[in-house]
Amino acid sequence: MRNNIQIVLIILSIFLITACTNSETESEQNNTDPFMNLSNTPKEAGEEEPPLDSPLDGLTEEDKILPEEENKEQSDAEEIEEAQPELDDMQRAIPVDPNTPPEQYLGDEASQVEMIRDLPFDNFKERWNAISDANYSNLYIKEFQETQTDDGITYTASLANNLELQVHVTSDYVQSVGAYTKSSVDAMKMLSAWYQVIQVMHPNIEVHDVDAFFHEIGVGPNGNLTALKMGSIPYYHITYEIAKVDNEYVFLGTYR
Questions:
Q1: Neighbours of 167 (CB within 10 A)
Q2: Cβ distance 251 to 178 under 8 Å?
Q3: Is the dihedral of CA 54, 60, 61, 66 positive or negative?
Q4: Can you state the angle between helices 207-216 and 187-201, rounded to 10 degrees?
Q5: For the CA atoms of the chain, what is the radius of gyration?
Q6: Which one, out of 55, 86, 134, 236, has a CA that is 20 to 30 A from the CA of 43?
Q7: What is the domain partition of the chain in residue ranges?
Q8: Hey, what long-range contacts does 185-190 have (CB within 8 A, 24 or more apart)?
């Protein structure tokens, strides 16, 4: 009887110990932090986080270009194309050496220069007087006097006192245009005639180009002629002759 009681007590003791052990294990598991495995939980030293999957994985280099970057590239390309005309405009403004053949710097315009080598005389008077109107020079051609020569006709017109214009013509085309002073004449009036000789022989020339040519031949401010160069000066397809005898000046442009 006593032995049976002891056996029962031992069995109860084993059951109680087992029950307590299971209870402690469950308590430890329940007390575990449920957020321990989240990414913002501090990692132990030496522990590395697994790499994240990139949304760009599996895409080509062209596919990885964002719309903003693509638009920026297109905008940059358009800006470069728009800048080209400006660059072209800057190239046209480069000063031209009068001794340089027109074909070397005029490009497509060279053919136009070639075409105006032959200046018809039939409307020369109208051309000259239109330039006089534009310049307010009052150097008008009223009438021409004809003089026959071996190779054509020379037309002479009085522009002002002691200032005349001579136009030499062969086969109805102008060969040369010259401004002549017979005696002392107002320098500004004489230079106005020279100015118009250049304009009529270069129909497409710009005013600032004529000013640059005057500077090249030594015409100073306010018509100062102390540094004026004498002799032959080639300019485009025309040769200009500048001469002085006493107080008489000759300014003659001849097609080459």
A1: 23
A2: yes
A3: negative
A4: 120
A5: 49
A6: 55
A7: 111-255
A8: 185/160, 185/161, 187/223, 187/225, 188/223, 189/137, 189/139, 189/160, 189/163, 190/163, 190/249
